[in-house]
Description:
Layout: H1 3-6, H2 19-29, H3 34-41, H4 45-59, H5 64-73
Amino acid sequence: MSLTATMPHIEAPAPALAPRERETLRHIAGGRTYLQTARHMGLSKHTVDAYLRRIRAKLNINSTAELTRLAISLGL
């Protein structure tokens, strides 16, 4: 049994994300912390946290691993 067979498929999530949400996702998936992402984007850590909460709510994602998988599938 392959790992991909047990993972849920996400249908075309890209249009649902705002540009800053996509940018935030790219940084977090690239291994940056919330604070590093905030500094790079010129935001507060709380704003980065809010963006990630919105992304998770919009796409029904619960973990950073799932966020990273999404970012890879979007080519971020």
